[in-house]
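Appendix C. Worked example: ABC transporter domain-containing protein
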Amino acid sequence: MSSELIKDNILFGLLFDEGCYQSTLEACALGPDLALFDNGDETEIGKKGVLLSGGQKAQVALACAVYARTQFVVLDDVFSDLVNSAAGWQVQLDKGQIKVQGTPQQLQESGALLQKLEWDAHNYAEQEAIDSSGAATNTKVEKEKKSTKKLVEDEARSIGSVTVEVYRTYLSAGSYWLFGLLVLFLALGQTVQLLQKFWIKYWGESYNDRVKFSAFSRNWLDFGFPPASHNVVPYLSVYLII
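Step 2, the predicted output written as structure tokens:
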């Protein structure tokens, strides 16, 4: 089901035939459902038919198959989305012949299709009264000349570099102090990595007391530790602290 008009989903690329189209709407009991929308069959249903209920989706899909006038139609679990308003008369076929037929109430009382349908007789009587007093469903669906409302509006976009206002809005949404803490932690993380590299260098130079320390190690990192070959505990302790 495409995110187009209900009418387009029924036609499915075929040429429009007014008589055939109206007969299809009547056969699929879509008249009362289309009357619920301001634009009738000119209503945009959205992605995957989000605007329609499960029963209405099934009716539109069935209407598409009926309008196509194909020789064979494969239907899977046709009663799963059946609703009271669309079930005025049910027919069950067996090898091309009518096995049982009647109103849902009659079939329920006789026990036919009991495994397929569970109908509430009281709710059906109320729905039948509404259908009989509402309007004749065999009349054409009146189409009011209204502008078609788009369910999904076209998105706007900006072209060019990102403005300072965008960054300011982004920072204010996450709070400035939180952003400051993030920068501080990133800086501390980089500092700790540098200290680890310098300490490993100092540690490696201290293994041989005959090796001359670099100027940096001799002037700034002279902690008076013994050579690492004699006692490695001080070096390991500082490394673990870092």
